[in-house]
Amino acid sequence: MYNEAMDTVAEILENYIRHLRNQTLSQTTARSYENTVRQFCYFWGLHKDLFTISERSTELFMVHLSKEGYSTKSLNSKKSAVNNFLDYLSEKYNVSIHYISSNSTPKECTELRLLTEEEISKLRDLIKNDLRSLAIVYLLLYSGIKVGEVINLKMTDFLLTENKGSLVLKDRTIPLEDLSLKNLLKYLAVRPKSSEANLFVSASGIPLNIRNLRRQINRYFLKAEINNATLFDLRHTFCINKLKSGASIEEIATVAGHKNLITTQKYLTYINLDAN
After folding, report:
1. What angle do CA 85, 115, 216 make, to 5 degrees?
2. pLDDT tens readout for residues 109-124
3. Family, per the entry (predicted)?
Protein backbone atom coordinates (compact mmCIF):
# COMPACT_ATOMS: atom_id res chain seq x y z
CA MET A 1 0.00 0.00 0.00
CA TYR A 2 1.29 3.45 -0.95
CA ASN A 3 1.55 5.75 2.03
CA GLU A 4 3.18 9.12 1.53
CA ALA A 5 1.29 10.79 4.33
CA MET A 6 3.01 14.13 4.22
CA ASP A 7 2.71 14.76 0.48
CA THR A 8 1.66 18.34 -0.10
CA VAL A 9 -1.37 19.28 -2.14
CA ALA A 10 1.01 20.58 -4.82
CA GLU A 11 2.75 17.19 -5.06
CA ILE A 12 -0.58 15.37 -5.12
CA LEU A 13 -1.77 17.63 -7.95
CA GLU A 14 1.32 16.82 -10.03
CA ASN A 15 0.81 13.09 -9.43
CA TYR A 16 -2.88 13.34 -10.33
CA ILE A 17 -2.14 15.12 -13.61
CA ARG A 18 0.33 12.37 -14.56
CA HIS A 19 -2.31 9.81 -13.62
CA LEU A 20 -4.92 11.51 -15.83
CA ARG A 21 -2.64 11.43 -18.82
CA ASN A 22 -2.37 7.65 -18.51
CA GLN A 23 -6.14 7.15 -18.45
CA THR A 24 -8.41 6.36 -21.40
CA LEU A 25 -10.39 9.58 -21.12
CA SER A 26 -11.39 11.87 -23.92
CA GLN A 27 -9.18 14.90 -24.30
CA THR A 28 -12.09 17.15 -23.31
CA THR A 29 -12.86 15.20 -20.13
CA ALA A 30 -9.21 14.97 -19.11
CA ARG A 31 -8.73 18.70 -19.61
CA SER A 32 -11.91 19.45 -17.64
CA TYR A 33 -10.80 17.23 -14.75
CA GLU A 34 -7.31 18.70 -14.71
CA ASN A 35 -8.54 22.30 -14.74
CA THR A 36 -11.09 21.73 -11.97
CA VAL A 37 -8.74 19.78 -9.71
CA ARG A 38 -6.04 22.37 -10.25
CA GLN A 39 -8.61 25.02 -9.30
CA PHE A 40 -9.53 23.07 -6.16
CA CYS A 41 -5.89 22.58 -5.12
CA TYR A 42 -5.10 26.27 -5.52
CA PHE A 43 -8.26 27.13 -3.59
CA TRP A 44 -7.42 24.78 -0.72
CA GLY A 45 -3.72 25.61 -0.56
CA LEU A 46 -0.79 23.99 -2.37
CA HIS A 47 1.35 24.04 0.79
CA LYS A 48 -1.10 21.97 2.84
CA ASP A 49 -0.66 18.25 3.36
CA LEU A 50 -2.74 15.33 2.17
CA PHE A 51 -4.80 14.82 5.30
CA THR A 52 -6.23 18.33 5.28
CA ILE A 53 -8.32 17.31 2.27
CA SER A 54 -11.72 16.30 3.61
CA GLU A 55 -15.46 16.49 3.05
CA ARG A 56 -15.32 20.01 4.46
CA SER A 57 -12.67 21.17 2.00
CA THR A 58 -14.61 19.90 -1.01
CA GLU A 59 -17.81 21.43 0.35
CA LEU A 60 -16.12 24.80 0.85
CA PHE A 61 -14.79 24.60 -2.70
CA MET A 62 -18.27 24.06 -4.11
CA VAL A 63 -19.60 26.96 -2.03
CA HIS A 64 -16.82 29.10 -3.47
CA LEU A 65 -17.73 28.09 -7.05
CA SER A 66 -21.40 28.77 -6.41
CA LYS A 67 -20.56 32.28 -5.22
CA GLU A 68 -18.51 32.79 -8.37
CA GLY A 69 -21.70 32.41 -10.39
CA TYR A 70 -21.12 29.07 -12.13
CA SER A 71 -24.21 27.57 -13.75
CA THR A 72 -25.80 24.40 -12.41
CA LYS A 73 -24.46 22.51 -15.41
CA SER A 74 -20.93 23.75 -14.77
CA LEU A 75 -21.17 22.97 -11.06
CA ASN A 76 -22.26 19.40 -11.80
CA SER A 77 -19.35 19.02 -14.21
CA LYS A 78 -16.94 20.24 -11.53
CA LYS A 79 -18.48 17.86 -8.98
CA SER A 80 -17.71 14.98 -11.34
CA ALA A 81 -14.11 16.16 -11.65
CA VAL A 82 -13.67 16.46 -7.89
CA ASN A 83 -15.20 13.02 -7.35
CA ASN A 84 -12.75 11.57 -9.86
CA PHE A 85 -9.98 13.18 -7.81
CA LEU A 86 -11.40 11.60 -4.64
CA ASP A 87 -11.35 8.21 -6.38
CA TYR A 88 -7.69 8.79 -7.14
CA LEU A 89 -6.92 9.71 -3.51
CA SER A 90 -8.64 6.54 -2.33
CA GLU A 91 -6.73 4.34 -4.75
CA LYS A 92 -3.31 5.98 -4.51
CA TYR A 93 -3.17 7.24 -0.93
CA ASN A 94 -5.72 5.05 0.84
CA VAL A 95 -7.72 8.14 1.83
CA SER A 96 -11.49 7.81 1.86
CA ILE A 97 -13.57 10.97 1.46
CA HIS A 98 -17.31 11.02 0.78
CA TYR A 99 -18.36 11.97 -2.74
CA ILE A 100 -20.08 15.24 -3.50
CA SER A 101 -23.67 14.29 -4.31
CA SER A 102 -24.61 14.97 -7.92
CA ASN A 103 -27.90 16.56 -6.87
CA SER A 104 -26.64 18.49 -3.85
CA THR A 105 -26.68 22.25 -3.70
CA PRO A 106 -23.71 24.01 -2.10
CA LYS A 107 -24.60 25.49 1.27
CA GLU A 108 -23.07 28.48 2.91
CA CYS A 109 -20.66 27.33 5.61
CA THR A 110 -21.31 30.11 8.08
CA GLU A 111 -20.12 28.01 10.99
CA LEU A 112 -17.39 25.56 11.71
CA ARG A 113 -18.40 22.61 13.83
CA LEU A 114 -17.44 23.38 17.42
CA LEU A 115 -17.86 20.57 19.94
CA THR A 116 -19.54 21.75 23.12
CA GLU A 117 -18.19 20.96 26.58
CA GLU A 118 -21.07 18.53 27.03
CA GLU A 119 -20.20 16.73 23.79
CA ILE A 120 -16.52 16.60 24.72
CA SER A 121 -17.43 15.14 28.10
CA LYS A 122 -19.66 12.49 26.50
CA LEU A 123 -16.92 11.59 24.05
CA ARG A 124 -14.29 11.29 26.78
CA ASP A 125 -16.53 9.06 28.87
CA LEU A 126 -17.26 6.83 25.89
CA ILE A 127 -13.64 6.28 24.87
CA LYS A 128 -12.02 6.20 28.31
CA ASN A 129 -11.12 2.52 27.94
CA ASP A 130 -9.77 2.93 24.40
CA LEU A 131 -6.44 4.44 25.40
CA ARG A 132 -5.18 4.99 21.88
CA SER A 133 -8.29 6.90 20.78
CA LEU A 134 -8.35 8.79 24.06
CA ALA A 135 -4.76 9.93 23.61
CA ILE A 136 -5.43 11.04 20.03
CA VAL A 137 -8.62 12.91 20.91
CA TYR A 138 -6.80 14.79 23.68
CA LEU A 139 -3.98 15.72 21.33
CA LEU A 140 -6.39 17.07 18.72
CA LEU A 141 -8.56 18.90 21.24
CA TYR A 142 -5.82 20.45 23.33
CA SER A 143 -2.55 20.71 21.41
CA GLY A 144 -3.26 22.11 17.93
CA ILE A 145 -1.61 19.19 16.15
CA LYS A 146 -2.94 18.27 12.70
CA VAL A 147 -4.61 14.92 11.98
CA GLY A 148 -1.92 14.05 9.44
CA GLU A 149 0.77 14.89 11.98
CA VAL A 150 -0.84 12.61 14.56
CA ILE A 151 -0.85 9.72 12.10
CA ASN A 152 2.82 10.31 11.29
CA LEU A 153 4.12 10.85 14.82
CA LYS A 154 7.22 8.80 15.55
CA MET A 155 8.27 7.55 18.97
CA THR A 156 11.26 9.88 18.78
CA ASP A 157 8.98 12.91 18.23
CA PHE A 158 7.74 12.65 21.82
CA LEU A 159 10.01 14.16 24.44
CA LEU A 160 9.57 13.90 28.20
CA THR A 161 11.75 16.13 30.34
CA GLU A 162 11.20 16.71 34.05
CA ASN A 163 7.55 15.60 33.79
CA LYS A 164 6.95 18.01 30.91
CA GLY A 165 5.97 16.55 27.55
CA SER A 166 6.28 17.95 24.06
CA LEU A 167 5.97 16.85 20.44
CA VAL A 168 8.82 17.86 18.16
CA LEU A 169 7.54 18.28 14.61
CA LYS A 170 9.41 19.38 11.51
CA ASP A 171 8.19 22.98 11.71
CA ARG A 172 7.42 23.53 15.39
CA THR A 173 7.49 22.07 18.90
CA ILE A 174 4.15 21.59 20.67
CA PRO A 175 4.09 21.58 24.48
CA LEU A 176 1.55 19.15 25.91
CA GLU A 177 -0.84 20.23 28.62
CA ASP A 178 -1.13 17.92 31.62
CA LEU A 179 -4.13 15.81 30.62
CA SER A 180 -2.86 15.29 27.07
CA LEU A 181 0.48 14.15 28.48
CA LYS A 182 -1.20 11.91 31.05
CA ASN A 183 -3.34 10.15 28.43
CA LEU A 184 -0.46 9.80 26.00
CA LEU A 185 1.65 8.14 28.70
CA LYS A 186 -1.24 5.79 29.50
CA TYR A 187 -1.37 4.73 25.87
CA LEU A 188 2.39 4.27 25.62
CA ALA A 189 2.27 1.98 28.65
CA VAL A 190 0.04 -0.44 26.73
CA ARG A 191 1.19 0.29 23.16
CA PRO A 192 1.52 -3.02 21.28
CA LYS A 193 5.06 -4.16 20.66
CA SER A 194 6.08 -3.10 17.20
CA SER A 195 9.18 -2.71 15.08
CA GLU A 196 7.55 0.34 13.51
CA ALA A 197 8.73 3.81 14.48
CA ASN A 198 5.20 5.21 14.46
CA LEU A 199 3.87 6.23 17.84
CA PHE A 200 0.30 5.13 17.12
CA VAL A 201 -0.07 1.56 15.88
CA SER A 202 -2.79 -1.05 15.56
CA ALA A 203 -3.19 -4.06 17.85
CA SER A 204 -0.97 -6.00 15.45
CA GLY A 205 1.73 -3.32 15.50
CA ILE A 206 0.97 -1.83 12.08
CA PRO A 207 1.06 1.99 11.79
CA LEU A 208 -2.38 3.51 12.26
CA ASN A 209 -3.80 4.96 9.05
CA ILE A 210 -6.18 7.86 8.53
CA ARG A 211 -9.03 5.71 7.23
CA ASN A 212 -9.16 3.48 10.29
CA LEU A 213 -8.79 6.41 12.67
CA ARG A 214 -11.64 8.30 11.04
CA ARG A 215 -13.84 5.21 11.05
CA GLN A 216 -13.18 4.62 14.75
CA ILE A 217 -13.79 8.22 15.82
CA ASN A 218 -16.93 8.43 13.67
CA ARG A 219 -18.28 5.39 15.50
CA TYR A 220 -17.73 7.15 18.80
CA PHE A 221 -19.41 10.30 17.50
CA LEU A 222 -22.41 8.19 16.52
CA LYS A 223 -22.61 6.43 19.88
CA ALA A 224 -22.25 9.73 21.74
CA GLU A 225 -24.96 11.30 19.53
CA ILE A 226 -22.55 14.01 18.37
CA ASN A 227 -24.05 14.88 15.01
CA ASN A 228 -22.39 16.35 11.91
CA ALA A 229 -18.92 16.19 13.43
CA THR A 230 -15.73 14.91 11.83
CA LEU A 231 -12.29 14.02 13.08
CA PHE A 232 -11.04 17.41 11.85
CA ASP A 233 -13.58 19.26 14.01
CA LEU A 234 -11.60 18.29 17.11
CA ARG A 235 -8.75 20.50 15.92
CA HIS A 236 -11.19 23.22 14.83
CA THR A 237 -12.58 23.15 18.37
CA PHE A 238 -9.07 23.67 19.76
CA CYS A 239 -8.46 26.70 17.53
CA ILE A 240 -11.83 28.30 18.24
CA ASN A 241 -11.52 27.79 21.99
CA LYS A 242 -8.04 29.32 21.94
CA LEU A 243 -9.46 32.37 20.18
CA LYS A 244 -12.29 32.60 22.68
CA SER A 245 -9.79 32.47 25.55
CA GLY A 246 -7.97 35.49 24.16
CA ALA A 247 -5.14 34.02 22.09
CA SER A 248 -4.11 36.06 19.07
CA ILE A 249 -4.40 34.92 15.46
CA GLU A 250 -0.59 34.84 15.29
CA GLU A 251 -0.32 32.63 18.39
CA ILE A 252 -2.88 30.16 17.07
CA ALA A 253 -1.26 30.09 13.62
CA THR A 254 2.07 29.23 15.24
CA VAL A 255 0.84 26.39 17.45
CA ALA A 256 -1.50 25.03 14.75
CA GLY A 257 1.21 25.11 12.11
CA HIS A 258 -0.67 27.36 9.69
CA LYS A 259 1.69 28.74 7.07
CA ASN A 260 -0.79 31.43 6.05
CA LEU A 261 -2.73 33.65 8.47
CA ILE A 262 -5.72 33.50 6.12
CA THR A 263 -6.17 29.89 7.19
CA THR A 264 -6.38 30.96 10.84
CA GLN A 265 -8.58 33.99 10.21
CA LYS A 266 -11.49 31.79 9.15
CA TYR A 267 -12.04 31.13 12.85
CA LEU A 268 -12.71 34.83 13.42
CA THR A 269 -15.86 34.48 11.31
CA TYR A 270 -17.13 31.85 13.72
CA ILE A 271 -16.31 34.00 16.75
CA ASN A 272 -18.12 36.99 15.23
CA LEU A 273 -21.17 34.90 14.35
CA ASP A 274 -21.22 33.37 17.82
CA ALA A 275 -21.10 36.83 19.39
CA ASN A 276 -24.17 37.85 17.42
Report:
1. 55
2. 445 788 999 999 999 9
3. Belongs to the 'phage' integrase family.
81-86: long-range contacts at Cβ-Cβ below 8 A with a sequence spacing of 24 or more? 81/32, 81/33, 81/35, 81/36, 81/37, 82/36, 82/37, 82/40, 82/58, 84/33, 84/37, 85/16, 85/33, 85/37, 85/40, 86/58
Residue 34's Cβ-side half-sphere holds a number of Cα atoms within 13 Å equal to 16
Rounded to an integer, what distance in angstroms lies between the CA atom of residue 55 and that of residue 257?
Answer: 21
Do 169 and 149 meet the contact criterion of CB atoms below 8 Å apart? yes
Question: CB atoms < 10 A from the CB of 38, how many?
Answer: 15
How far is Cα 55 from Cα 211, in angstroms, rounded to an integer? 13
Tell whether the torsion through CA atoms of 10, 14, 15 and 17 is positive or negative.
Answer: positive
Q: 200 with 208: CB under 8 angstroms?
A: yes
Q: What is the pLDDT of residues 55-96, one digit of tens each?
A: 778 888 888 887 777 777 888 889 889 988 988 888 888 776
In order of start, what are the domains of the chain with their CATH numbers?
A: 9-93 (1.10.150.130), 117-275 (1.10.443.10)
DSSP for 165-206 reads: EEEE-SS-EEEPPHHHHHHHHHHHHHPPP-SS-BSSB-TTSP
Buried b (16+ CB within 10 A) or exposed e, 141-157: bbbbbbbbbbbbbeeeb
Return the bridge partners of 201, or none: 207
